[in-house]
């Protein structure tokens, strides 16, 4: 393969849960001023999983969309990135592989590093494609953000899965080989294996995010990465959408004073999905990219920055060049349909779902059908998760 063969995102689809809680409804019960949610953190609603939805069902939804369009013939690797793992040993992607009816000749693995996992998966996928340019790698980022009730993090919950098909001569965006990295041991946000909700030091997490942005950006620049003024905009990891504004202000302070800032309308275009989905952890950055592409015409050959941050912390700054003709490959209507299909829940139903837990003692649980999506968790039996498909996919056979 010629060394300059473009490799990157050939397709990008996201899906979310069947339910949503608006911040107006949350504010009625927390007593917060709604302006704090809408203006202060830039959030309007959050996706809430139904009792029979989890990272596997969301990932299967997103992957089905991609495979219905491209088939599975060239697929040799499926990487599922998550920090909401459902098993300490078995990769959640194996359940997805089974639900999608994929052939056995595929390597499946799970990756974790907080919200950064999907970006590591993207880079590993690009390396695999460089090694075998005829192959596709399916990367799926799937997460559910859950914090304790009445905690500052509660308003930043959310859930979604983003599936990215990585290949040579990508139809959507080619990844630049130069990227900037930053790793630093910090306890800003973490979730020990015995907890279902994350622990977070909110203030420290904001500082750690900005420090990591600075570290990754400076490394990117040192390695000859594109300067800020060459970028149409930057898609940031969005734990809440106002974080993108904070991050962007910080980045501008690091750029030479003569730098013409990318325009703020472009930054706003990256936030449409995350402000009603909430934090989808490792999927969040790719919902920001989908939002930019779905809401912006004329990006042919534009360079876009991508900043990936995962608490703990690992961060990466990379850039992607949007492929001419990308608009023919978008899924704008599907994305908007996935969001508008969610049923709005009231506060009591949200509380009930938040309090619910699955058996940990091997007892059997049958979960009544609640999801409006095609895949559901039907129950737990002898410590085994039982998934089922309510709608047959039309994936082209391998
Ligand atoms: P908080 O204490 O609820 O809120 O915590 P606050 O008092 O800091 O207010 C938030 C903003 O609203 C402030 O804006 C207020 O001024 C404003 P800022 O000063 O920061 O620009 N505000 C108002 N604005 C208009 N009208 C009003 C009003 N009242 C207040 N009436 C916090 C906020 C984000 C800390 C909390 O939600 C939290 O702990 N969230 C979880 C942690 C988090 O999201 N951290 C982000 C960086 S770390 C990260 O991104 C990684 C992560 O995704 C995990 C992973 O990697 O896996 C979290």
From TrEMBL:
<feature type="binding site">
    <location>
        <position position="279"/>
    </location>
    <ligand>
        <name>(3S)-3-hydroxy-3-methylglutaryl-CoA</name>
    </ligand>
</feature>
<dbReference type="Pfam" id="PF08540">
    <property type="entry name" value="HMG_CoA_synt_C"/>
</dbReference>
<feature type="binding site">
    <location>
        <position position="246"/>
    </location>
    <ligand>
        <name>(3S)-3-hydroxy-3-methylglutaryl-CoA</name>
    </ligand>
</feature>
<comment type="similarity">
    <text>Belongs to the thiolase-like superfamily. HMG-CoA synthase family.</text>
</comment>
<dbReference type="GO" id="GO:0004421">
    <property type="term" value="F:hydroxymethylglutaryl-CoA synthase activity"/>
</dbReference>
<protein>
    <recommendedName>
        <fullName>Hydroxymethylglutaryl-CoA synthase</fullName>
    </recommendedName>
</protein>
<keyword id="KW-0808">Transferase</keyword>
<feature type="active site" description="Acyl-thioester intermediate">
    <location>
        <position position="115"/>
    </location>
</feature>
<dbReference type="InterPro" id="IPR013746">
    <property type="entry name" value="HMG_CoA_synt_C_dom"/>
</dbReference>
<dbReference type="Pfam" id="PF01154">
    <property type="entry name" value="HMG_CoA_synt_N"/>
</dbReference>
<feature type="domain" description="Hydroxymethylglutaryl-coenzyme A synthase N-terminal">
    <location>
        <begin position="7"/>
        <end position="168"/>
    </location>
</feature>
<feature type="active site" description="Proton donor/acceptor">
    <location>
        <position position="237"/>
    </location>
</feature>
<dbReference type="InterPro" id="IPR013528">
    <property type="entry name" value="HMG_CoA_synth_N"/>
</dbReference>
<feature type="active site" description="Proton donor/acceptor">
    <location>
        <position position="83"/>
    </location>
</feature>
<feature type="binding site">
    <location>
        <position position="147"/>
    </location>
    <ligand>
        <name>(3S)-3-hydroxy-3-methylglutaryl-CoA</name>
    </ligand>
</feature>
<dbReference type="InterPro" id="IPR011554">
    <property type="entry name" value="HMG_CoA_synthase_prok"/>
</dbReference>
<dbReference type="GO" id="GO:0016747">
    <property type="term" value="F:acyltransferase activity, transferring groups other than amino-acyl groups"/>
</dbReference>
<dbReference type="InterPro" id="IPR016039">
    <property type="entry name" value="Thiolase-like"/>
</dbReference>
<dbReference type="GO" id="GO:0006084">
    <property type="term" value="P:acetyl-CoA metabolic process"/>
</dbReference>
<feature type="domain" description="Hydroxymethylglutaryl-coenzyme A synthase C-terminal">
    <location>
        <begin position="268"/>
        <end position="352"/>
    </location>
</feature>
């Amino acid at each position: 393969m010629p060394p300059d063969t473009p490799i990157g995102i050939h397709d990008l689809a996201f899906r979310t849960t069947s339910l949503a809680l608006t911040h107006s409804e949350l504010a009625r019960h927390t007593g917060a001023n709604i302006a704090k949610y809408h203006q202060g953190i830039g959030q309007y609603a959050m996706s809430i999983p139904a009792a029979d939805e989890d990272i596997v069902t969301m990932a299967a939804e997103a992957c089905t969309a991609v495979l219905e369009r491209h088939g599975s013939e060239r697929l040799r690797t499926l990487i599922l990135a998550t920090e909401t793992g459902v098993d300490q040993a078995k990769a959640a992607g194996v359940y997805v592989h089974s639900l999608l009816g994929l052939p056995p000749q595929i390597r499946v693995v799970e990756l974790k590093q907080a919200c950064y996992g999907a970006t590591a998966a993207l880079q590993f996928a690009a390396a695999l494609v460089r090694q075998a340019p005829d192959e596709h790698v399916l990367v799926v980022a799937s997460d559910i953000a859950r914090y304790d009730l009445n905690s500052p993090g509660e308003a930043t919950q959310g859930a979604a899965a983003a599936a990215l098909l990585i290949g040579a001569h990508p139809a959507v965006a080619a990844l630049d080989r130069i990227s900037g990295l930053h790793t630093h041991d910090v306890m800003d946000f973490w979730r020990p294996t015995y907890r279902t909700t994350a622990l977070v030091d909110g203030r420290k997490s904001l500082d750690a995010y900005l420090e990591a942005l600075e570290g990754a950006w400076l490394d990117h620049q040192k390695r000859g990465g594109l300067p800020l003024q060459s970028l149409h905009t930057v898609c940031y990891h969005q734990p809440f959408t106002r974080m993108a504004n904070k991050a962007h202000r910080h980045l501008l302070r690091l750029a030479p004073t003569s730098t013409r800032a990318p325009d703020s309308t472009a930054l706003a275009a990256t936030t449409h999905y995350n402000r009603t989905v909430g934090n989808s952890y490792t999927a969040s950055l790719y919902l920001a990219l989908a939002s930019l592409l779905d809401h912006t015409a004329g990006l042919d050959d534009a360079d876009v920055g991508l900043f990936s941050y995962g608490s703990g912390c690992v961060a990466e700054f990379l850039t992607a060049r949007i492929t001419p003709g990308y608009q023919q490959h978008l899924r704008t209507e599907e994305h908007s349909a996935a969001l508008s299909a969610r049923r709005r829940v009231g506060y009591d139903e949200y509380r009930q779902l938040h309090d619910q837990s699955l058996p940990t003692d091997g007892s059997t649980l049958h979960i009544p059908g609640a999801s409006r999506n095609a895949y559901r968790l039907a129950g737990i039996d002898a410590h085994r998760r039982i998934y089922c498909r309510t709608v047959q996919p039309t994936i082209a056979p391998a």
